[in-house]
Amino acid sequence: MMNSSFNWSRAFLYSVLVFFCLIYLMPLFVMVITSFKTLPDIKAGNLMSLPQDWVFGAWEKAWSSACTGVKCEGVKGYFFNSFQMVIPAVLLSTLLGAFNGYVVTKWQFRGSNLFFSLLLFGCFIPFQVILLPMAAMLGKLGLANTTAGLVIVHVIYGMAFTTLFFRNFYIGIPDELVKAAKLDGAGFFTIFFKILLPLSTPIIMVTIIWQFTSIWNDFLFGVVYSGSETQPITVALNNLVNTSTGVKEYNVDMAAAIIAALPTLLVYVLAGKYFVRGLTAGSVKG
Amino acid sequence: MERTVTAPTNRSAPQKSFADKLQHWLPKIVLAPTMLITVVCIYGFIFWTAALSMTNSRFLPSFKFVGFAQYEKLMENDRWMTSITNLAIFGVLFLVIAIVLGAFLAIFLDQNIRQEGAIRTIYLYPMALSFIVTGTAWKWILNPGLGIEKMMHDWGFVNFEFDWLVNSEMSVYTLVIAAVWQSSGFVMAMFLAGLRGIDSSIIKAAQIDGASLPTIYLKIILPCLRPVVFSAVIITSHIAIKSFDLVTALTSGGPGYSSDLPALFMYAHSFTRGQIGLGSASAMMMLGGILAILVPYLYSELREKK
Protein backbone atom coordinates (compact mmCIF):
# COMPACT_ATOMS: atom_id res chain seq x y z
CA MET A 1 0.00 0.00 0.00
CA MET A 2 2.92 2.34 0.63
CA ASN A 3 6.31 2.59 -0.96
CA SER A 4 9.09 0.46 0.40
CA SER A 5 10.98 3.07 2.43
CA PHE A 6 11.58 1.89 5.99
CA ASN A 7 8.85 2.42 8.49
CA TRP A 8 7.92 0.77 11.75
CA SER A 9 4.61 -0.70 10.75
CA ARG A 10 6.22 -2.46 7.78
CA ALA A 11 8.93 -3.81 10.07
CA PHE A 12 6.27 -5.08 12.45
CA LEU A 13 4.36 -6.66 9.57
CA TYR A 14 7.41 -8.50 8.31
CA SER A 15 8.52 -9.66 11.75
CA VAL A 16 5.09 -11.16 12.45
CA LEU A 17 5.08 -12.93 9.08
CA VAL A 18 8.60 -14.27 9.56
CA PHE A 19 7.80 -15.35 13.12
CA PHE A 20 4.94 -17.48 11.82
CA CYS A 21 7.15 -18.89 9.09
CA LEU A 22 9.45 -20.14 11.84
CA ILE A 23 6.52 -21.60 13.78
CA TYR A 24 5.24 -23.50 10.75
CA LEU A 25 8.71 -24.72 9.80
CA MET A 26 9.73 -25.74 13.32
CA PRO A 27 8.15 -29.24 13.34
CA LEU A 28 9.69 -30.12 9.98
CA PHE A 29 13.07 -28.84 11.15
CA VAL A 30 12.80 -30.86 14.37
CA MET A 31 11.82 -33.98 12.43
CA VAL A 32 14.74 -33.67 10.04
CA ILE A 33 17.44 -33.03 12.65
CA THR A 34 16.08 -35.72 14.98
CA SER A 35 16.18 -38.28 12.17
CA PHE A 36 19.92 -37.65 11.71
CA LYS A 37 20.81 -38.01 15.41
CA THR A 38 21.89 -41.06 17.36
CA LEU A 39 19.87 -42.06 20.43
CA PRO A 40 22.53 -40.86 22.95
CA ASP A 41 22.68 -37.61 20.99
CA ILE A 42 18.91 -37.21 21.37
CA LYS A 43 19.15 -37.79 25.14
CA ALA A 44 22.08 -35.39 25.51
CA GLY A 45 20.79 -32.53 23.36
CA ASN A 46 17.35 -31.02 22.92
CA LEU A 47 14.75 -30.57 20.18
CA MET A 48 16.52 -27.71 18.46
CA SER A 49 20.14 -28.73 18.94
CA LEU A 50 21.86 -29.86 15.76
CA PRO A 51 23.18 -33.43 15.56
CA GLN A 52 26.74 -33.91 16.86
CA ASP A 53 27.36 -36.22 13.90
CA TRP A 54 24.94 -36.46 11.04
CA VAL A 55 24.25 -40.19 10.72
CA PHE A 56 21.95 -42.13 8.41
CA GLY A 57 21.41 -45.05 10.77
CA ALA A 58 17.84 -44.13 11.65
CA TRP A 59 16.94 -43.77 7.99
CA GLU A 60 18.33 -47.17 7.09
CA LYS A 61 16.52 -48.73 10.00
CA ALA A 62 13.22 -47.00 9.23
CA TRP A 63 13.44 -48.06 5.60
CA SER A 64 14.41 -51.69 5.98
CA SER A 65 14.54 -53.11 9.51
CA ALA A 66 12.32 -51.23 11.97
CA CYS A 67 9.44 -53.17 13.55
CA THR A 68 5.92 -52.33 12.43
CA GLY A 69 3.96 -54.64 14.66
CA VAL A 70 5.08 -58.26 14.38
CA LYS A 71 7.25 -57.85 11.31
CA CYS A 72 10.58 -56.05 11.39
CA GLU A 73 11.24 -55.16 7.77
CA GLY A 74 10.98 -51.38 7.87
CA VAL A 75 8.49 -49.32 5.91
CA LYS A 76 9.76 -49.92 2.38
CA GLY A 77 7.18 -52.59 1.52
CA TYR A 78 4.36 -50.36 2.76
CA PHE A 79 5.75 -47.42 0.83
CA PHE A 80 5.32 -49.43 -2.38
CA ASN A 81 1.93 -50.71 -1.20
CA SER A 82 0.79 -47.11 -1.05
CA PHE A 83 1.89 -46.51 -4.63
CA GLN A 84 0.15 -49.68 -5.79
CA MET A 85 -3.03 -48.39 -4.19
CA VAL A 86 -2.74 -44.72 -5.10
CA ILE A 87 -1.97 -44.93 -8.82
CA PRO A 88 -4.97 -46.98 -9.99
CA ALA A 89 -7.29 -45.24 -7.53
CA VAL A 90 -6.28 -41.77 -8.72
CA LEU A 91 -6.53 -42.64 -12.41
CA LEU A 92 -9.89 -44.38 -12.13
CA SER A 93 -11.54 -41.74 -9.96
CA THR A 94 -10.25 -38.93 -12.17
CA LEU A 95 -11.55 -40.63 -15.32
CA LEU A 96 -14.95 -41.25 -13.76
CA GLY A 97 -15.09 -37.70 -12.44
CA ALA A 98 -14.33 -36.31 -15.91
CA PHE A 99 -17.13 -38.30 -17.55
CA ASN A 100 -19.60 -37.52 -14.78
CA GLY A 101 -18.77 -33.83 -14.88
CA TYR A 102 -19.17 -33.88 -18.66
CA VAL A 103 -22.59 -35.50 -18.52
CA VAL A 104 -24.04 -33.34 -15.75
CA THR A 105 -22.98 -30.13 -17.51
CA LYS A 106 -23.25 -30.84 -21.25
CA TRP A 107 -25.73 -33.71 -21.57
CA GLN A 108 -28.20 -32.87 -18.85
CA PHE A 109 -31.26 -35.04 -18.69
CA ARG A 110 -34.18 -35.17 -16.33
CA GLY A 111 -32.82 -36.14 -12.96
CA SER A 112 -29.16 -35.41 -13.70
CA ASN A 113 -29.17 -32.39 -11.41
CA LEU A 114 -30.85 -34.34 -8.64
CA PHE A 115 -28.22 -37.01 -9.12
CA PHE A 116 -25.46 -34.45 -8.81
CA SER A 117 -26.88 -33.12 -5.53
CA LEU A 118 -27.18 -36.65 -4.18
CA LEU A 119 -23.58 -37.36 -5.13
CA LEU A 120 -22.38 -34.08 -3.64
CA PHE A 121 -23.71 -35.15 -0.28
CA GLY A 122 -21.14 -37.94 -0.50
CA CYS A 123 -18.42 -35.28 -0.07
CA PHE A 124 -19.72 -34.47 3.36
CA ILE A 125 -20.71 -37.67 5.10
CA PRO A 126 -18.44 -38.87 7.88
CA PHE A 127 -17.06 -42.12 6.52
CA GLN A 128 -17.70 -43.85 9.83
CA VAL A 129 -21.26 -44.19 8.67
CA ILE A 130 -20.33 -46.47 5.75
CA LEU A 131 -17.38 -48.35 7.28
CA LEU A 132 -19.21 -51.43 8.52
CA PRO A 133 -21.41 -52.14 5.49
CA MET A 134 -18.41 -51.58 3.19
CA ALA A 135 -16.39 -54.08 5.20
CA ALA A 136 -19.21 -56.59 4.80
CA MET A 137 -19.45 -55.96 1.07
CA LEU A 138 -15.70 -56.28 0.50
CA GLY A 139 -15.82 -59.53 2.46
CA LYS A 140 -18.64 -60.86 0.28
CA LEU A 141 -16.73 -59.94 -2.88
CA GLY A 142 -13.60 -61.66 -1.58
CA LEU A 143 -11.75 -58.35 -1.55
CA ALA A 144 -11.21 -57.98 2.18
CA ASN A 145 -7.59 -57.13 3.03
CA THR A 146 -6.60 -56.66 -0.62
CA THR A 147 -5.15 -53.68 -2.45
CA ALA A 148 -7.91 -54.02 -5.06
CA GLY A 149 -10.49 -53.60 -2.31
CA LEU A 150 -8.78 -50.46 -1.04
CA VAL A 151 -8.63 -49.06 -4.58
CA ILE A 152 -12.36 -49.62 -5.00
CA VAL A 153 -13.15 -47.91 -1.72
CA HIS A 154 -11.02 -44.89 -2.60
CA VAL A 155 -12.56 -44.64 -6.07
CA ILE A 156 -16.11 -44.82 -4.71
CA TYR A 157 -15.67 -42.19 -2.03
CA GLY A 158 -13.36 -39.99 -4.11
CA MET A 159 -15.83 -39.80 -6.99
CA ALA A 160 -17.96 -37.13 -5.36
CA PHE A 161 -14.97 -34.78 -5.25
CA THR A 162 -13.65 -35.54 -8.72
CA THR A 163 -17.12 -35.08 -10.21
CA LEU A 164 -17.48 -31.78 -8.38
CA PHE A 165 -14.13 -30.55 -9.71
CA PHE A 166 -14.88 -31.42 -13.32
CA ARG A 167 -18.44 -30.20 -13.11
CA ASN A 168 -17.33 -26.78 -11.82
CA PHE A 169 -14.76 -26.59 -14.59
CA TYR A 170 -16.96 -27.73 -17.47
CA ILE A 171 -19.78 -25.44 -16.46
CA GLY A 172 -17.50 -22.56 -17.43
CA ILE A 173 -16.96 -23.91 -20.94
CA PRO A 174 -19.54 -22.36 -23.30
CA ASP A 175 -22.38 -24.68 -24.26
CA GLU A 176 -22.27 -23.21 -27.79
CA LEU A 177 -19.04 -25.08 -28.39
CA VAL A 178 -20.75 -28.38 -27.68
CA LYS A 179 -23.93 -27.42 -29.51
CA ALA A 180 -22.02 -26.53 -32.67
CA ALA A 181 -20.20 -29.85 -32.56
CA LYS A 182 -23.51 -31.68 -32.08
CA LEU A 183 -24.93 -29.94 -35.15
CA ASP A 184 -21.88 -31.05 -37.09
CA GLY A 185 -22.86 -34.55 -36.10
CA ALA A 186 -20.16 -35.20 -33.54
CA GLY A 187 -21.16 -37.84 -31.00
CA PHE A 188 -20.88 -38.06 -27.24
CA PHE A 189 -17.34 -39.42 -27.10
CA THR A 190 -16.04 -37.40 -30.05
CA ILE A 191 -17.07 -34.17 -28.35
CA PHE A 192 -15.50 -35.27 -25.11
CA PHE A 193 -12.17 -36.40 -26.52
CA LYS A 194 -11.80 -33.82 -29.31
CA ILE A 195 -13.22 -30.70 -27.66
CA LEU A 196 -13.41 -30.88 -23.88
CA LEU A 197 -10.47 -33.07 -22.98
CA PRO A 198 -7.85 -30.88 -24.72
CA LEU A 199 -9.13 -27.94 -22.64
CA SER A 200 -9.07 -29.89 -19.40
CA THR A 201 -5.37 -30.00 -18.53
CA PRO A 202 -5.59 -27.61 -15.55
CA ILE A 203 -8.54 -29.39 -13.93
CA ILE A 204 -6.98 -32.80 -14.57
CA MET A 205 -3.86 -31.59 -12.73
CA VAL A 206 -5.94 -30.25 -9.83
CA THR A 207 -7.93 -33.46 -9.57
CA ILE A 208 -4.95 -35.80 -9.80
CA ILE A 209 -3.03 -33.86 -7.17
CA TRP A 210 -6.01 -33.62 -4.85
CA GLN A 211 -6.76 -37.32 -5.16
CA PHE A 212 -3.12 -38.32 -4.85
CA THR A 213 -2.69 -36.29 -1.67
CA SER A 214 -5.88 -37.41 0.00
CA ILE A 215 -5.52 -41.09 -0.88
CA TRP A 216 -1.83 -41.22 0.04
CA ASN A 217 -2.58 -39.52 3.36
CA ASP A 218 -5.65 -41.62 4.17
CA PHE A 219 -5.53 -43.62 7.35
CA LEU A 220 -9.13 -44.59 8.13
CA PHE A 221 -9.77 -46.80 5.08
CA GLY A 222 -6.23 -48.13 5.25
CA VAL A 223 -6.49 -49.27 8.84
CA VAL A 224 -9.95 -50.80 8.39
CA TYR A 225 -9.68 -52.50 5.00
CA SER A 226 -6.03 -53.47 4.52
CA GLY A 227 -4.40 -56.71 5.56
CA SER A 228 -0.93 -57.08 7.06
CA GLU A 229 0.53 -57.51 3.56
CA THR A 230 -1.33 -54.64 1.92
CA GLN A 231 -1.10 -51.90 4.55
CA PRO A 232 -0.45 -48.42 3.20
CA ILE A 233 2.41 -46.37 4.61
CA THR A 234 0.27 -44.30 6.99
CA VAL A 235 -0.89 -47.43 8.80
CA ALA A 236 2.65 -48.82 8.89
CA LEU A 237 3.97 -45.53 10.29
CA ASN A 238 1.40 -45.56 13.06
CA ASN A 239 2.28 -49.18 13.88
CA LEU A 240 5.98 -48.39 13.87
CA VAL A 241 5.55 -45.49 16.29
CA ASN A 242 3.33 -47.52 18.59
CA THR A 243 5.35 -50.74 18.56
CA SER A 244 6.69 -50.89 22.06
CA THR A 245 9.64 -53.23 22.03
CA GLY A 246 12.68 -52.06 23.96
CA VAL A 247 13.93 -48.50 23.77
CA LYS A 248 11.84 -45.90 22.03
CA GLU A 249 13.77 -44.81 18.94
CA TYR A 250 12.59 -41.30 18.20
CA ASN A 251 15.11 -40.87 15.40
CA VAL A 252 13.66 -43.90 13.56
CA ASP A 253 10.11 -42.61 14.12
CA MET A 254 11.01 -39.28 12.58
CA ALA A 255 12.82 -40.83 9.60
CA ALA A 256 9.79 -43.03 8.91
CA ALA A 257 7.46 -40.05 9.24
CA ILE A 258 9.51 -38.09 6.71
CA ILE A 259 9.51 -41.06 4.32
CA ALA A 260 5.72 -41.21 4.60
CA ALA A 261 5.45 -37.46 3.98
CA LEU A 262 7.96 -37.22 1.13
CA PRO A 263 5.75 -38.02 -1.90
CA THR A 264 3.01 -35.56 -0.99
CA LEU A 265 5.52 -32.89 0.04
CA LEU A 266 7.27 -33.33 -3.28
CA VAL A 267 3.99 -32.96 -5.16
CA TYR A 268 3.26 -29.85 -3.12
CA VAL A 269 6.63 -28.28 -3.88
CA LEU A 270 6.49 -29.14 -7.59
CA ALA A 271 2.84 -28.38 -8.25
CA GLY A 272 1.75 -26.21 -5.32
CA LYS A 273 -0.32 -23.96 -7.57
CA TYR A 274 -2.64 -26.81 -8.53
CA PHE A 275 -2.71 -28.11 -4.98
CA VAL A 276 -3.95 -24.79 -3.62
CA ARG A 277 -6.46 -24.49 -6.42
CA GLY A 278 -7.85 -27.89 -5.53
CA LEU A 279 -8.07 -26.99 -1.86
CA THR A 280 -9.98 -23.81 -2.50
CA ALA A 281 -12.05 -25.13 -5.43
CA GLY A 282 -14.66 -26.76 -3.26
CA SER A 283 -14.77 -24.11 -0.59
CA VAL A 284 -14.63 -20.60 -2.02
CA LYS A 285 -17.26 -20.20 -4.66
CA GLY A 286 -17.17 -17.79 -7.56
CA MET B 1 -31.85 -35.45 -36.60
CA GLU B 2 -31.58 -35.56 -40.41
CA ARG B 3 -27.86 -35.03 -40.43
CA THR B 4 -25.41 -37.76 -41.08
CA VAL B 5 -23.62 -38.92 -38.00
CA THR B 6 -19.90 -38.59 -38.43
CA ALA B 7 -16.97 -39.99 -36.52
CA PRO B 8 -17.37 -43.15 -34.44
CA THR B 9 -20.91 -43.97 -35.53
CA ASN B 10 -20.83 -43.11 -39.25
CA ARG B 11 -22.81 -45.97 -40.73
CA SER B 12 -25.48 -46.60 -43.39
CA ALA B 13 -29.10 -45.55 -43.05
CA PRO B 14 -30.86 -48.31 -41.04
CA GLN B 15 -28.10 -48.40 -38.44
CA LYS B 16 -28.13 -44.64 -38.18
CA SER B 17 -31.31 -44.61 -36.17
CA PHE B 18 -29.77 -47.12 -33.84
CA ALA B 19 -26.73 -44.86 -33.56
CA ASP B 20 -29.02 -41.93 -32.82
CA LYS B 21 -30.72 -43.90 -30.11
CA LEU B 22 -27.38 -44.89 -28.72
CA GLN B 23 -26.31 -41.24 -28.69
CA HIS B 24 -29.48 -40.45 -26.81
CA TRP B 25 -28.84 -43.12 -24.23
CA LEU B 26 -25.05 -42.78 -23.94
CA PRO B 27 -25.01 -40.00 -21.32
CA LYS B 28 -27.31 -42.05 -19.12
CA ILE B 29 -25.29 -45.21 -19.67
CA VAL B 30 -22.07 -43.39 -18.77
CA LEU B 31 -23.59 -41.95 -15.62
CA ALA B 32 -25.34 -45.18 -14.62
CA PRO B 33 -22.46 -46.88 -12.76
CA THR B 34 -21.86 -43.80 -10.63
CA MET B 35 -25.57 -43.45 -9.92
CA LEU B 36 -25.81 -47.07 -8.90
CA ILE B 37 -22.74 -46.84 -6.69
CA THR B 38 -24.00 -43.63 -5.09
CA VAL B 39 -27.36 -45.11 -4.29
CA VAL B 40 -25.91 -48.34 -2.91
CA CYS B 41 -22.61 -47.28 -1.31
CA ILE B 42 -23.71 -43.96 0.16
CA TYR B 43 -27.44 -44.09 0.79
CA GLY B 44 -27.84 -47.84 1.03
CA PHE B 45 -24.90 -48.12 3.41
CA ILE B 46 -26.15 -45.28 5.60
CA PHE B 47 -29.47 -47.08 5.84
CA TRP B 48 -27.61 -50.31 6.64
CA THR B 49 -25.64 -48.63 9.42
CA ALA B 50 -28.85 -47.12 10.75
CA ALA B 51 -30.38 -50.62 10.78
CA LEU B 52 -27.34 -52.08 12.55
CA SER B 53 -27.59 -49.38 15.20
CA MET B 54 -31.02 -50.72 16.11
CA THR B 55 -29.83 -54.29 16.63
CA ASN B 56 -27.88 -55.90 19.41
CA SER B 57 -24.97 -56.80 17.06
CA ARG B 58 -21.73 -57.52 18.85
CA PHE B 59 -18.81 -59.20 17.05
CA LEU B 60 -21.04 -60.18 14.14
CA PRO B 61 -24.08 -58.40 12.78
CA SER B 62 -27.26 -59.83 14.22
CA PHE B 63 -30.74 -58.88 13.22
CA LYS B 64 -32.45 -58.81 16.53
CA PHE B 65 -34.26 -55.52 16.66
CA VAL B 66 -33.77 -53.64 19.91
CA GLY B 67 -35.11 -50.20 18.98
CA PHE B 68 -33.13 -47.31 20.38
CA ALA B 69 -31.48 -49.32 23.14
CA GLN B 70 -27.99 -48.78 21.69
CA TYR B 71 -28.54 -45.01 21.67
CA GLU B 72 -29.63 -45.15 25.30
CA LYS B 73 -26.53 -47.17 26.13
CA LEU B 74 -24.45 -44.61 24.30
CA MET B 75 -25.84 -41.78 26.40
CA GLU B 76 -25.02 -43.68 29.57
CA ASN B 77 -21.54 -44.53 28.36
CA ASP B 78 -18.87 -42.47 30.16
CA ARG B 79 -16.37 -42.86 27.35
CA TRP B 80 -18.88 -41.60 24.78
CA MET B 81 -19.79 -38.61 26.91
CA THR B 82 -16.09 -37.83 27.32
CA SER B 83 -15.58 -38.12 23.59
CA ILE B 84 -18.37 -35.71 22.68
CA THR B 85 -17.29 -33.24 25.39
CA ASN B 86 -13.79 -33.45 23.93
CA LEU B 87 -15.15 -32.93 20.44
CA ALA B 88 -16.91 -29.77 21.62
CA ILE B 89 -13.73 -28.44 23.28
CA PHE B 90 -11.47 -29.48 20.43
CA GLY B 91 -13.87 -28.42 17.69
CA VAL B 92 -14.62 -24.94 19.07
CA LEU B 93 -11.01 -24.10 19.97
CA PHE B 94 -9.67 -25.45 16.68
CA LEU B 95 -12.30 -23.61 14.67
CA VAL B 96 -11.89 -20.26 16.42
CA ILE B 97 -8.09 -20.28 16.56
CA ALA B 98 -7.65 -21.51 12.98
CA ILE B 99 -10.06 -18.91 11.61
CA VAL B 100 -8.71 -15.96 13.62
CA LEU B 101 -5.12 -16.90 12.85
CA GLY B 102 -5.89 -17.62 9.20
CA ALA B 103 -7.70 -14.30 8.78
CA PHE B 104 -4.88 -12.32 10.42
CA LEU B 105 -2.17 -14.00 8.38
CA ALA B 106 -4.14 -13.41 5.19
CA ILE B 107 -4.64 -9.70 5.99
CA PHE B 108 -0.94 -9.33 6.82
CA LEU B 109 0.04 -11.13 3.64
CA ASP B 110 -2.22 -8.92 1.57
CA GLN B 111 -0.09 -5.78 2.15
CA ASN B 112 2.14 -6.04 -0.93
CA ILE B 113 4.57 -8.28 0.85
CA ARG B 114 7.82 -9.16 -0.85
CA GLN B 115 8.31 -12.92 -1.21
CA GLU B 116 4.59 -13.43 -0.64
CA GLY B 117 4.63 -16.64 -2.67
CA ALA B 118 7.39 -18.18 -0.57
CA ILE B 119 5.70 -17.24 2.71
CA ARG B 120 2.40 -18.65 1.50
CA THR B 121 4.10 -21.89 0.54
CA ILE B 122 5.53 -22.19 4.05
CA TYR B 123 2.20 -21.50 5.76
CA LEU B 124 0.41 -24.06 3.66
CA TYR B 125 2.79 -27.00 3.44
CA PRO B 126 1.45 -28.82 6.53
CA MET B 127 -1.78 -29.29 4.58
CA ALA B 128 0.10 -31.67 2.27
CA LEU B 129 0.97 -33.96 5.18
CA SER B 130 -1.01 -36.84 6.56
CA PHE B 131 -2.49 -36.28 10.02
CA ILE B 132 -0.55 -39.40 11.00
CA VAL B 133 2.72 -37.65 10.13
CA THR B 134 1.57 -34.49 11.93
CA GLY B 135 0.58 -36.53 14.98
CA THR B 136 3.90 -38.39 15.01
CA ALA B 137 5.87 -35.15 14.78
CA TRP B 138 3.94 -33.38 17.53
CA LYS B 139 4.01 -36.43 19.75
CA TRP B 140 7.79 -36.10 19.68
CA ILE B 141 7.84 -32.32 20.09
CA LEU B 142 5.43 -32.45 23.04
CA ASN B 143 7.20 -35.42 24.62
CA PRO B 144 7.25 -34.53 28.33
CA GLY B 145 10.76 -35.85 28.98
CA LEU B 146 12.70 -34.97 25.86
CA GLY B 147 10.60 -32.45 23.94
CA ILE B 148 9.82 -28.78 24.47
CA GLU B 149 10.15 -29.13 28.23
CA LYS B 150 13.78 -30.24 28.03
CA MET B 151 14.55 -27.60 25.44
CA MET B 152 13.24 -24.85 27.72
CA HIS B 153 15.23 -26.29 30.64
CA ASP B 154 18.37 -26.25 28.47
CA TRP B 155 17.65 -22.67 27.54
CA GLY B 156 17.55 -21.70 31.20
CA PHE B 157 13.85 -21.82 32.04
CA VAL B 158 14.36 -24.43 34.73
CA ASN B 159 10.84 -24.37 36.09
CA PHE B 160 9.13 -24.68 32.73
CA GLU B 161 6.63 -27.55 32.74
CA PHE B 162 4.76 -28.95 29.80
CA ASP B 163 3.18 -32.34 30.33
CA TRP B 164 -0.07 -31.94 28.39
CA LEU B 165 0.46 -35.13 26.43
CA VAL B 166 0.37 -37.29 29.58
CA ASN B 167 -1.94 -35.10 31.62
CA SER B 168 -5.50 -36.31 31.31
CA GLU B 169 -6.84 -32.82 32.04
CA MET B 170 -4.87 -31.27 29.20
CA SER B 171 -4.32 -33.97 26.56
CA VAL B 172 -7.24 -32.80 24.43
CA TYR B 173 -5.53 -29.43 23.97
CA THR B 174 -2.54 -31.07 22.30
CA LEU B 175 -4.94 -32.07 19.52
CA VAL B 176 -5.85 -28.40 19.10
CA ILE B 177 -2.19 -27.40 18.78
CA ALA B 178 -1.43 -29.99 16.10
CA ALA B 179 -4.67 -29.44 14.17
CA VAL B 180 -4.23 -25.65 14.13
CA TRP B 181 -0.66 -26.08 12.92
CA GLN B 182 -1.83 -28.31 10.12
CA SER B 183 -4.94 -26.49 8.93
CA SER B 184 -4.59 -22.76 9.69
CA GLY B 185 -2.54 -22.22 6.52
CA PHE B 186 -5.44 -23.56 4.52
CA VAL B 187 -7.85 -21.15 6.21
CA MET B 188 -5.32 -18.40 5.43
CA ALA B 189 -5.38 -19.39 1.74
CA MET B 190 -9.18 -19.21 1.72
CA PHE B 191 -9.18 -15.73 3.25
CA LEU B 192 -6.46 -14.56 0.90
CA ALA B 193 -8.50 -15.71 -2.09
CA GLY B 194 -11.48 -13.88 -0.62
CA LEU B 195 -9.48 -10.68 -0.05
CA ARG B 196 -8.20 -10.74 -3.62
CA GLY B 197 -11.76 -10.99 -4.84
CA ILE B 198 -12.84 -7.73 -3.22
CA ASP B 199 -13.22 -4.78 -5.56
CA SER B 200 -10.25 -2.52 -4.76
CA SER B 201 -12.08 0.64 -5.82
CA ILE B 202 -14.27 0.42 -2.69
CA ILE B 203 -11.16 0.42 -0.54
CA LYS B 204 -9.61 3.30 -2.45
CA ALA B 205 -12.80 5.32 -2.04
CA ALA B 206 -12.77 4.70 1.69
CA GLN B 207 -9.12 5.73 1.90
CA ILE B 208 -9.90 8.97 0.10
CA ASP B 209 -12.68 9.58 2.61
CA GLY B 210 -10.00 9.34 5.28
CA ALA B 211 -10.88 5.99 6.83
CA SER B 212 -8.00 4.38 8.75
CA LEU B 213 -6.73 0.96 7.81
CA PRO B 214 -8.26 -0.88 10.80
CA THR B 215 -11.60 0.82 10.14
CA ILE B 216 -11.47 -0.24 6.51
CA TYR B 217 -10.85 -3.83 7.51
CA LEU B 218 -13.51 -3.94 10.21
CA LYS B 219 -16.22 -2.00 8.44
CA ILE B 220 -15.72 -2.85 4.78
CA ILE B 221 -13.54 -5.87 4.18
CA LEU B 222 -14.64 -8.26 6.92
CA PRO B 223 -18.34 -7.97 6.00
CA CYS B 224 -17.37 -8.79 2.40
CA LEU B 225 -15.62 -11.89 3.66
CA ARG B 226 -18.70 -13.33 5.35
CA PRO B 227 -19.05 -16.18 2.84
CA VAL B 228 -15.40 -17.12 3.40
CA VAL B 229 -15.90 -17.20 7.17
CA PHE B 230 -18.94 -19.36 6.56
CA SER B 231 -17.05 -21.84 4.38
CA ALA B 232 -14.15 -21.89 6.82
CA VAL B 233 -16.50 -22.72 9.70
CA ILE B 234 -18.06 -25.55 7.69
CA ILE B 235 -14.72 -26.99 6.62
CA THR B 236 -12.97 -26.78 9.98
CA SER B 237 -15.90 -28.20 11.90
CA HIS B 238 -16.09 -30.95 9.32
CA ILE B 239 -12.40 -31.75 9.87
CA ALA B 240 -13.00 -31.74 13.63
CA ILE B 241 -15.94 -34.15 13.56
CA LYS B 242 -14.13 -36.56 11.26
CA SER B 243 -10.85 -36.36 13.22
CA PHE B 244 -9.60 -39.88 13.61
CA ASP B 245 -6.04 -40.12 12.34
CA LEU B 246 -4.74 -37.16 14.33
CA VAL B 247 -6.02 -38.41 17.66
CA THR B 248 -4.85 -41.96 16.85
CA ALA B 249 -1.32 -40.83 16.11
CA LEU B 250 -0.96 -38.15 18.76
CA THR B 251 -2.61 -39.48 21.93
CA SER B 252 -4.45 -42.70 20.93
CA GLY B 253 -7.27 -41.18 22.95
CA GLY B 254 -5.18 -41.31 26.11
CA PRO B 255 -4.20 -41.12 28.86
CA GLY B 256 -7.02 -43.56 29.56
CA TYR B 257 -9.73 -42.24 27.29
CA SER B 258 -9.29 -38.63 28.36
CA SER B 259 -8.69 -37.36 24.81
CA ASP B 260 -11.07 -39.72 23.02
CA LEU B 261 -13.08 -38.40 20.08
CA PRO B 262 -16.26 -39.87 18.53
CA ALA B 263 -14.46 -41.15 15.43
CA LEU B 264 -12.02 -43.11 17.60
CA PHE B 265 -14.85 -44.36 19.80
CA MET B 266 -16.67 -45.62 16.72
CA TYR B 267 -13.59 -47.41 15.39
CA ALA B 268 -12.73 -49.00 18.73
CA HIS B 269 -16.23 -50.31 19.37
CA SER B 270 -16.94 -51.49 15.83
CA PHE B 271 -13.64 -53.10 14.96
CA THR B 272 -11.73 -54.05 18.09
CA ARG B 273 -14.20 -54.33 20.96
CA GLY B 274 -16.93 -56.26 19.18
CA GLN B 275 -19.73 -53.77 19.84
CA ILE B 276 -21.01 -53.31 16.30
CA GLY B 277 -24.44 -52.13 17.43
CA LEU B 278 -23.02 -49.46 19.70
CA GLY B 279 -20.41 -48.48 17.10
CA SER B 280 -23.12 -48.02 14.47
CA ALA B 281 -25.15 -45.89 16.85
CA SER B 282 -22.12 -43.65 17.41
CA ALA B 283 -21.57 -43.40 13.63
CA MET B 284 -25.17 -42.28 13.18
CA MET B 285 -24.67 -39.65 15.88
CA MET B 286 -21.64 -38.35 13.94
CA LEU B 287 -23.72 -38.15 10.78
CA GLY B 288 -26.34 -36.26 12.77
CA GLY B 289 -23.67 -33.82 13.94
CA ILE B 290 -22.52 -33.12 10.40
CA LEU B 291 -26.08 -32.70 9.16
CA ALA B 292 -26.80 -30.26 11.97
CA ILE B 293 -24.05 -28.01 10.60
CA LEU B 294 -24.57 -28.69 6.94
CA VAL B 295 -28.34 -28.42 6.50
CA PRO B 296 -28.66 -24.81 7.72
CA TYR B 297 -25.65 -23.94 5.54
CA LEU B 298 -27.08 -25.52 2.40
CA TYR B 299 -30.46 -24.01 3.18
CA SER B 300 -29.07 -20.49 3.36
CA GLU B 301 -26.96 -21.09 0.22
CA LEU B 302 -30.00 -22.19 -1.74
CA ARG B 303 -32.10 -19.29 -0.47
CA GLU B 304 -29.46 -16.79 -1.55
CA LYS B 305 -29.49 -18.25 -5.04
CA LYS B 306 -33.22 -17.68 -5.45
Q: Which key phrases capture this entry?
A:
heterodimer; A: 286 residues; mainly alpha; 0% strand; globular; B: 306 residues; 13 helices
Tell me about this structure.
With 286 residues, chain A is an all-alpha fold. Helices cover 73% and strands 0% of the residues of chain A. The longest helix of chain A is centred in the last third of the chain and has 32 residues, at 250-281. The model of chain A has no long low-confidence stretch (mean pLDDT 87). Chain B has helices at residues 13-52, 69-76, 78-109, 116-124, 131-141, 148-154, 171-196, 200-208, 213-224, 226-242, 245-250, 262-272, 276-305. Chain B is globular. Chain B is built from 13 helices and no strands. The chains are: A mainly alpha (286), B mainly alpha (306).
Helix percent band of chain B: over 70%
Report the C-alpha radius of gyration of chain A, rounded.
Answer: 24 Å
Approximate helicity band of chain A = over 70%
Query: Which chains have the largest interface?
Result: A-B, 96 and 106 residues
| Uncertain residue ranges of chain B | 1-13
Secondary structure: number of strands of chain A: 0
**H and E string of chain A:** HHHHHHHHHHHHH
Largest sheet of chain A: none
Major sheet size, sense and barrel closure of chain B: none
Give the averaged pLDDT of chain A, no decimals: 87
**Helix segment tally of chain A:** 13
Shape of chain A: globular
The quaternary organization reads as heterodimer
Q: Write the H/E string of chain B, N to C.
A: HHHHHHHHHHHHH
Mean pLDDT score of chain B:
85
What is the C-alpha radius of gyration of chain B, as a whole number of Å? 26 Å
